[in-house]
Specification:
Layout (H helix, E strand, L loop, with lengths): L9 H12 L3 E4 L3 H6 L6 H15 L5 E4 L2 H4 L2 H17 L3 E8 L3 H12 L9 E4 L9 H9 L3 E7 L6 H4 L2 E2 L2 E2 H12 L10 E5 L19 E2 L13 H4 L1
Parallel strand pairs: 1-2, 2-3, 3-4, 4-5, 5-8, 8-9
Antiparallel strand pairs: 6-7
Helix pairs in contact: 3-5, 6-7
Length: about 240
Amino acid sequence: MISSGSRLPFGSRLQKAVAARGRLCVGIDPHEALLREWGLGVDVAGVREFGLRTVDAAASTVAVVKPQVSFFERFGSAGYAALEEVMAAARAAGLLVIADAKRGDIGTTMDAYAAAWLTPGSALEADALTVSPYLGVGALSSTFAYALAHDKGVFVLAATSNPEAAGLQSARRGQETVAATVAAEVVAADPTGADEWASLGLVVGATVDLAALGLRAFERPVPLLAPGFGAQGAQPADLPRVF
């Protein structure tokens, strides 16, 4: 079993997990149609069972799971309790957990989000958190610092897989697109050595045209979370374009 609680930087733990189990990250997305397909109720019991079954199937097989917070959040406090149980089970099984919450704010509000998801021993403890840079990458600086201080990771939305994002993310600021600017600022914010995996990563959809967004290969190992498989249409043949 790969320990997810060791005092190593998130990037180092991710590198070890990927070396042992491969690059696949399994999403835990108990939306209504999928719950019905699995014969589960569209309720707290259903999302809990879906999450625990997914963890059981993923344990000792993949490196990372990524629960989509909203599918649990829709059921209020009971949904959060189910999410806590699923995340704890995943981490106990040696899986790294990325909380897909896409938080984005400023100041003390963003600090509270970081504390909720990235504090060791907290009820919602994850190994990494997805965040939105729409208020500026600089607004995430305290979240980056908090994550790094607690050996956690952050994945910043840079080039997402939904088609609605193309106009905004391909807009140019001088010679660079918004997506490329976000990526460059996140990479620059990580103090990890040039030969080590960074703990600050990027969300780069498997369906996006990287060249059109001006995204180029990085000079250091930067973790990329590449969603888009399933309903959004990405195929295995798309992976070389991202990785």
